[in-house]
Amino acid sequence: MENGNLLEVRNLSKIYPGGSGVRNASIKIRYGSIHALLGNNGAGKSTTMKCITGLLEPDSIEISFRGTTYPWNSKDLKKHIGYVPELPAFPKVFTVHDCIVSYGRMMGLGKAEAVGRAMPIVSILGLEEHMKKRVSSLSRGMLQKLDIVIALLSDPDVIIMDEPTAGLDVSAVEELFGIIRSLRDRGKSILISSHQLRDIETISDSVTVMDSGHVIFDGSIKDLYASAGSVEVVAEFSRIDGKLMETIKRMQGVMDVRMEDVPNRISIAFSGSTDPCGYLRDLAFRDGVSLISCSRSQSDLRTAFIRMVEYVRGQRKDQ
To answer: DSSP letters of the chain?
Structure first.
């Protein structure tokens, strides 16, 4: 596997009438990796993906592939990128075979070449028995597989998947992620957006977090945990007053402090390798308070994502 970044997107901006859109977004995708693009609805994920693939013209963008900078929508660049849209859309009267031939023709492939390239992927994805079926008869999961077949016809190095798990049941999501892992194992790089954060956590090597059109984090999941708080602590005291809360908030490594529903119990997000329970016990003692209980657990991607977004929004309000 090659080292470094395969695809770099810098200064991507696309502003819609009314002011919403994406502002100065930058993303780096490494060779042979799965990179997750996370954000709430309206964060700018789909806009970012469509600008990269050439489906939507940005106001500004810089794209480098294997260290070479390309103009937006360059044919030389697009042949290296495959795209799986959120909503598969094929002519209802087409069969699976028709779709492969038709989309292959758009890529400059003859009928035999398109089918020849597609069949190994069709076999892997279990679509062989469906080749003569009309797409109108296929399930959402099967349509998603057909989209992947078509995206791979040009043998791209980068595959961009916009919410590929939308509308899929649990077993179909598990099967799809198995396919994505196999693509990575074949040396492909994948950029994927999804609301299935727990599943995304198990397959992703790195992540970009977007909020309100801005990239607020781009790096490894490990670094996201370190930035947003890698340890979650629930502590119960004999009493909690404003002085103790302020002291805890000023502790080194504290990212967030919240009151729990239970009286005198708080949850605290810590970053780094601090032993928070030991610190809390010392703080409580100095303030004449008893630490009744303290439990810690490792943060997950969903918690880290929410915390990062809320932290950045809080910083914006303070400015």
So the answer is: ---SEEEEEEEEEEE-TTS-EEEEEEEEEETT-EEEEE--TTSSHHHHHHHHHTSS--SEEEEEETTEEE-TT-HHHHTTEEEE-SS----TT-BHHHHHHHHHHHTT--HHHHHHHHHHHHHHHT-GGGTTSBGGGS-HHHHHHHHHHHHTTT--SEEEEESTTTT--HHHHHHHHHHHHHHHHTT-EEEEE-S-HHHHHHH-SEEEEEETTEEEEEEEHHHHHHHH-SEEEEEEES---HHHHHHHHTSTTEEEEEE-SSTTEEEEEE-TT--HHHHHHHHHHHTT--EEEEEEEE--HHHHHHHHHHHHHHHHHH-
